[in-house]
Structures are given as structure tokens and as C-alpha cells.
DNA sequence: TCTCCAATCGAAAGCGCTTTACATGCGCAC
DNA sequence: GTGCGCATGTAAAGCGCTTTCGATTGGAGA
């Protein structure tokens, strides 16, 4: 391994001067030139551990996926969010460190992150595990899809999304509208359900108890179960607003299996606009979350925090607008 | 920041003893106990940079996505592969470092990786960019979906996949079979096309020039273009084997748009079995690559290399079996 | 009681880099 | 010729940890 000592020997300068030349500090042009030439010639590569040790700055950002996200990196929603985050962070020369979480306890994850000396942390999850809050006292942190009063966070405007969905349904003549909710301990689940109820009230529509079913943690299995419950009702809804595309897709599927037609008999609106949404039959009308933008904004918040050595405990929340994507799963009622 | 010096002061032992206790080296039970207690009490967290500097071992594995993979982490195929890789690497306490590649040149990526001192590198891409080979002389490396004579690599048994596809089509009475190829500078593209030709020959079927079209880099746009060319033929194929699901989905879509029925008029088989495949209409019959397994096997190879300080230049290639997933996009010819 | 050995611990060097505080040498004005 | 200030370079300490090798200790055996 070639070090600055080798460069120093080779050029006749001291290691201090070499270090300065490499860091664009003040040295004569002549020295800089000679040193840079030697760097080239000897194939010198700086050692980031040594630098981190000396400067206490790692240029790494830790990425933590919540345990409930089984698919991790490959998650259809959060994967894209992280990609958006990464693109922005890269511009500022940060690398992303995906830490392992098999140690189980969040407590351990938090220790691990500080062990690694990351400059900041982005946490991707939607519920529970408050233990990790401790992190924030130590390392700049930004949360995605999860509110917090201690830190930065970015999430979609879930309530407006619900309103968009209900409005669209009402405009198409629907009044018997059900809602398959995401788990009610998750932030998006709660917000979307709340928005749904508000929007129904705004239209003077009743929120019927039996039209409000829990679909669990946004999986197809959960969506399927919830829809089955809805289908077993004597007085079925004519439209259902589903708080997640995966659930919505499963819900559509099971209603088709039951012999009903989508959207002729029952209309559907999802939430997320994951890639699959446009490919199912009928193509799913849904509320699109801007995943790239969410990731990017999270990166912006985090980098700001890092730069500011933010000890001021500023709480920064960003709500990202959502849009209605009209496709084929909603039918106008005669 | 609390260091081993603090622990040493607090317990009365030297930093050497503290270090040993923390690393399960030989110290008395009494010392170990006192030290571990102090660690707990003072909330000591080791500093990985210092340790890496001293041991020359970072416990990080660098992850590099090829530039041609626009979607990066969110890629429907490679995202899952990396997730499989991660799961295995985690078991051995490695963290994954996704390095930024905006610096452009592979040359730079390679420097960056050695700058970071990662213990190993996994490269995810399917073509070109040979510059990165240099890496392998420095850092243990494993490639995914890309052959190399210098290193470890894992990929699916593409040729067998093609055979599976062709056999299935032939069994269903098809003889006029076209192939939309992945770009012929990519390894999977070449292999699948080769396998296709071989299989056709085995069945005594001609490989017609105009039935072999290039779909480019596995995108929907490319698949669409290629299919349009096939549809413009006077003598159309009755089945097309598409070297990638994204392309296949687009191809099916455009033939439906053209007024033809799938699979009644034209049957389709894809390759990959990405998540969307089962949701399109008709559900796509395809050759499934075992993404988790590919990732896991890549991790196994890499960790072996790292452990062996492999200077023996062993070339380790693993070919992962593929399976035919029958769904609805292939129709038996009358 | 004395010797000797094994077990246990610690001093110190070193990993590669940054940074402060100071030394050196130069040109310039007087 | 003297003195001054400035530009440039360097010595050395320090970041937190590992590891070698020698010092110390306690106890077993004679």
C-alpha cells in the first residue's frame, strides 16, 4: 500500500505538505504539481479510514430498513425511494452504507451505526420501533414515511391522497364507498383512513362501520383477506379505496375470482402507484406517490442537517404532494 | 466520544487489556467482567475506522451497479439479487457499501473502492466496462450475470432456459417461433440467443433471419420496437420467445394493441420472472431466474475468497438452474 | 525457603492521515 | 547593511485501536 509517506519520500516534501496539496490547502504551485505527479506515478490512493479517524467525518450515510419490510432493498416502494435518495446523496460524494439488522434489536442497530461513524442516517419504515429515536441525539437523522417530533421527516400528503380518491369516486357517481385500510399503527395507514373519513364527511356521505376493513401491512395476502370480508357483505360497496397498491391488486383479483366484474361491479382505487399497477387488468387507478422526490427531499434534509451540525433541534417535515392517476379500475355509475 | 482509554481509566487496566477483553483474546475472567461492565456503564462504542486502520479489515463489501442499469437499486431483477446477497453477507457481519458512481469512469470507481478499503466487491451488470477488471487484482471480486476469466461469477443457466422455452413452445405445436433478443453485447443476451438457436436445431426447426430481432437493453421500449418489427412481417410467427420479461410485457401489449389476441394469435414466453409477470394479462409464461439464490451464491463465493485471502486466482463460476413457469401466455396450437 | 514456570498484564510502536504551531528563507523598504 | 513581513514548508501530536514482546506476579514443586 502506498501512503503519503511514499509520496513525501519521492518528492522530497514532508507528509504535511503532501496532505495539504491533496486537500487543496495552500501550497506553492510547484509543490502541488510535483506531488500530484508523484500521486499519479505511484498510484497512490488515500485511505479513508485514516482520514475518517483524523477528521471524524466518514462521508457515509447509514440506511436502515424497518424490520417489517420483508423485501428490504427490493421493496417496490421503498426501493425506489432509496434510489432517489442515493442519486442526490451521490452528488455530494456520500456513499450509502446498508447496515445489517440481523442483530435484531434496534438498540443494536443504533450502536452499530455509531460504531460505523456514519455522518447521517436515513430510516425507512412506517411504524413502531421507537427505540431508534435515541439515534437522533447522536447522529443527524431523517425518517421516511414516519412522523417524529425530534427530527427531519418526509412523507406523502396522505390525507389529500384520500380526498383525491374519494372525490374521483364521488364524481363518478359512487356513494357506497369502502376503504381497505393499512395497519392502523402505521402512519400512512392512519392518515389515509383519516383522510378518507374526512372526505366522506365533506361529501355528506356516511362512513359505514362494515365498509372499513383492516388490510394489515400492505401485503397482497392482507388485501385479499380484507376484500373477502367486503365481498361477504349483503350490501356490497360499489367502490373501494384501498390504502396500498399491493393490497388493491389482490383485492381486485379476489373479486374477479368471485365472479364479479372489475370495474363494472366494483371500482377500485389504490395508493402508491407501484410499477405493477399499470400492468394489471384492469389497469389500476391509483394515487401516485412521487418516490424519487421523496427520496431526494429526504437527502436534502439530511445533508442540510449534517452541514449545519444541527444541534438546534430544528424539526423539518416535508409533505410531498400526490397525484391521481386515472386508469381503468374506476367505472362511472349509471 | 468514549474510547478504550476511558474504559482503561475506569477499570484500572491498560488499553491493551481492554482491547483484548473486547476481542475475546486471553484475559482473566475477572478483568473481562470488570471491563465489560465498564463498557456497559460508559456506553462505549468501538470506532470502526480506528479498528479498520489497525487491522486492515473493514467488514464492508462494495456494491457496484453497472451504468446501464438506469434504475439502480430499484431494478426489478438486480434489486432482488442484491437483497439475496445482503441476507447472506449479513450473517457474517458484513455491511454493504453502495458507492456512488457519478464520477463516471470505472477507473474512478475502482479507485474509490480501494480508497474505501472494502474487503470485497460485488459487481452487478451484464456487459462492457472491462476497465473494472483491474479491481480484481486488488480486491476479491464477484460478478453477477457476467462471465470473466479472472474471478468469481454467478449467472443463470441461460442456454437451458432457452431450451426450456423452445421445448415448451414446440410441445404446444409451435414451429414458427421468433426470438426477441437482449442486446448482443450482453452476456445473457448472447447466451439466450445461442440457446435458442441450438434448441431450434435440436427440433429440426429453421431459425429464420427475420424472426431474430434485437430488443436492446431489456427495456419495455426496446421490446415494443422489436415486436413491431415482427408484427410487420407478412408471415408472422405464432410464438415468440422474449429474452427478458420487461421486453415480453411490452411485446404482448403492442400485439394486443395491433388487434391480435394473446395467446390465441401469438404466444409469448419471457425470461426472468419479475414480479409483474404474474400480474399482466394474460399472465406471462416465463423462465424464472432464482434471484435470491443467485445473490446468495455470489455472497458465498465472495466470502470464501475473502477468507482465503485468495491469491491462487481460482476461477469460480456458478451456474444457477432456471425453471419454466407456466402461466397463460402460451396457447396450444390446434 | 528458594526456584522456576505459566499465566496475566502493560508499554510502546504502528496503522495512514490531518492540523496546529512554529521555523525557515525570501524579497523588500529603509 | 539591517530589519521586517510574508509566503512556504515542517515537526510533532493526535485520531482510536491492535498487537508484539517483554515485565510482573503468583503459585507449585523441591
Strand order of the largest sheet of chain A: 2-1-3-4-5-11
Most strands sheet of chain A: 6 strands, parallel
Question: Which segments of chain A are poorly predicted (pLDDT under 50) over 5 or more consecutive residues?
Answer: none
- CATH topology of the largest domain in chain A, by name, is Rossmann fold
Structural category of chain A: alpha/beta
State the oligomer. homodimer
| Radius of gyration of chain A, CA atoms, in whole angstroms | 26 Å
Helix content of chain A: 40-55%
Overall mean confidence score, pLDDT of chain A: 91
Q: Write the H/E string of chain A, N to C.
A: HHHHEHEHEHEEHEHEHEHEEHEE
Number of DSSP E strands of chain A: 12
The level-1 CATH class of the largest domain in chain A = Alpha Beta
Name the CATH homologous superfamily of the largest domain in chain A: Response regulator
Summarize the model shown.
By secondary structure, chain A is α/β, with parallel strands linked by helices.
What layout of secondary structure does this protein have?
Two copies of one chain form a homodimer.
Chain A: H1 4-11, H2 15-22, H3 29-42, H4 48-55, E1 60-65, H5 78-91, E2 95-98, H6 106-116, E3 120-124, H7 135-138, E4 141-144, E5 152-156, H8 158-171, E6 177-181, H9 187-202, E7 212-214, H10 220-231, E8 239-242, H11 245-257, E9 267-272, E10 285-288, H12 291-308, E11 316-320, E12 323-325
Parallel strand pairs in A: 1-2, 1-3, 3-4, 4-5, 5-11, 6-7, 6-8, 8-9, 9-10
Antiparallel strand pairs in A: 10-12
Helix pairs in contact in A: 1-2, 1-3, 2-3, 5-12, 8-9, 10-11
The structure holds a DNA duplex (30 and 30 nucleotides).
Amino acid at each position: 500500500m502506498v501512503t503519503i509517506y511514499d509520496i513525501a519520500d519521492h518528492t522530497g516534501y514532508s507528509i504535511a505538505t503532501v496532505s495539504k496539496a491533496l486537500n487543496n490547502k495552500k501550497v506553492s504551485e510547484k509543490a502541488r504539481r510535483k506531488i500530484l505527479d508523484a500521486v499519479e506515478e505511484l498510484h497512490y490512493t488515500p485511505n479513508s479510514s485514516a482520514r475518517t479517524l483524523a477528521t471524524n467525518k466518514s462521508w457515509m450515510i447509514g440506511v436502515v430498513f424497518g424490520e417489517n419490510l420483508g423485501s428490504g432493498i427490493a421493496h417496490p416502494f421503498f426501493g425506489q425511494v432509496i434510489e432517489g435518495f442515493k442519486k442526490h446523496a451521490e452528488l455530494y460524494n456520500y456513499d450509502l452504507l446498508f447496515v445489517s439488522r440481523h442483530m435484531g434489536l434496534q438498540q443494536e442497530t443504533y450502536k452499530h451505526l455509531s460504531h460505523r461513524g456514519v455522518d447521517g442516517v436515513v430510516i425507512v419504515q412506517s411504524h413502531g420501533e421507537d427505540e431508534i429515536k435515541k439515534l437522533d441525539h447522536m447522529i443527524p437523522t431523517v425518517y421516511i414515511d414516519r412522523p417524529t417530533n425530534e427530527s427531519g421527516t418526509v412523507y406523502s400528503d396522505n390525507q389529500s391522497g384520500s380526498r383525491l380518491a374519494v372525490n374521483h369516486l364521488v364524481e363518478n357517481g359512487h356513494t357506497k364507498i369502502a376503504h381497505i385500510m393499512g395497519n392502523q399503527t402505521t402512519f400512512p395507514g392512519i392518515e389515509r383512513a383519516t383522510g378518507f373519513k374526512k372526505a366522506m364527511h365533506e361529501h355528506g356521505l356516511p362512513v359505514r362501520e362494515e365498509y372499513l376493513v383492516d388490510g394489515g401491512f400492505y401485503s397482497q395476502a392482507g388485501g385479499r383477506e380484507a376484500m373477502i370480508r367486503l365481498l361477504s357483505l349483503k350490501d356490497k360497496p360499489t367502490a373501494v379505496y384501498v390504502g396500498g397498491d399491493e393490497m388493491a391488486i389482490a383485492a381486485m383479483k379476489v373479486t374477479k375470482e368471485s365472479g364479479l366484474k372489475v370495474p363494472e361491479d366494483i371500482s377500485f382505487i389504490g395508493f402508491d402507484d407501484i410499477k405493477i399497477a399499470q400492468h394489471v387488468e384492469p389497469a389500476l387507478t391509483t394515487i401516485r406517490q412521487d418516490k424519487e422526490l421523496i427520496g431526494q427531499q429526504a437527502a436534502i434534509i439530511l445533508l442540510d442537517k449534517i452541514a449545519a451540525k444541527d444541534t438546534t433541534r430544528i424539526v423539518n417535515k416535508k409533505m410531498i404532494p400526490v397525484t391521481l392517476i386515472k386508469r381503468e379500475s374506476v367505472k362511472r355509475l349509471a
